Here is the input.
Amino acid sequence: MSEPHVAIGRLSAELRELGVTGVYEVGDDGILSVWIGLVIRFRDGFYRWQEGQVKRRHLGTDPSGCAVRVARRYAELQVDVPSWWDDLAKILRGDAAEDYP
Here is the structure.
């Protein structure tokens, strides 16, 4: 198993322990989807994610710390859906997405 897959697997397990259960791997490149606009990659020793125009990163040696940050942001997104979400949802899912994040 490659380093990105191992790192993403550890992060995924940590997120599930924190109650973020809708997490799944995307493709074969070590990418983890947490929410429609919150996707995490492991590259160059860092967990990296982007939501809208904002880019973040966290040390790859600390999956539990990264999971706390991502779970916190996930909870914030669930409470207050960002304005860019509607446009992204229509692009990715089509008009049928409506109010479902």
